[in-house]
Amino acid sequence: MTYVDGFVLPVPENRLEDYRKMAENAGKIWMEHGALAFKECCIEDGNPTAPEDMPEMKMVPFSDLARLKDGETVIFSFIVFKSREHRDEVNAKVMADPRMKDSCPGQNPDLDMPFDVNRMSYGGFKTIVDF
Q1: pLDDT (tens digit per residue) in 9-53
Q2: Which of 53, 51, 48, 43 is nearest to 13 (CA)?
Q3: Exposed, middle or buried by CB within 10 Å (0-12, 13-18, 19+), for 13?
Q4: Domain spans, the chain
Q5: Distance CA 118, CA 60 (A)
Q6: Which residues partner with 51 through β-bridges?
């Protein structure tokens, strides 16, 4: 089964193109170093509603998870790997790649990030169903 790194983050709508360019560059680097897939997704339907036959069901919108402010949108992104070990190997290569200084605040603290890194959610996920 595969392993996935997942992210949810707020991006100011007026910086969405800056974010897209940064993510596109980063995605190329991840793919070159062995990631199986790299996806960046901008929310389109952010107001989930419970099914009519389950009105007691409460869902947490991604906007709440990202602590969205006025003028921001939500990005959901994920990177797919063969395994957690593969993820660790690929991420080590990515972080050592000098091109990452243009995309990673840890590599370049002066970088003008097009989103608030302090409101980014991140986690590594073991796949339990995979079609």
Answers
A1: 999 999 999 999 999 999 999 999 999 999 999 999 887 777 778
A2: 43
A3: exposed
A4: 3-45+60-126
A5: 20
A6: none
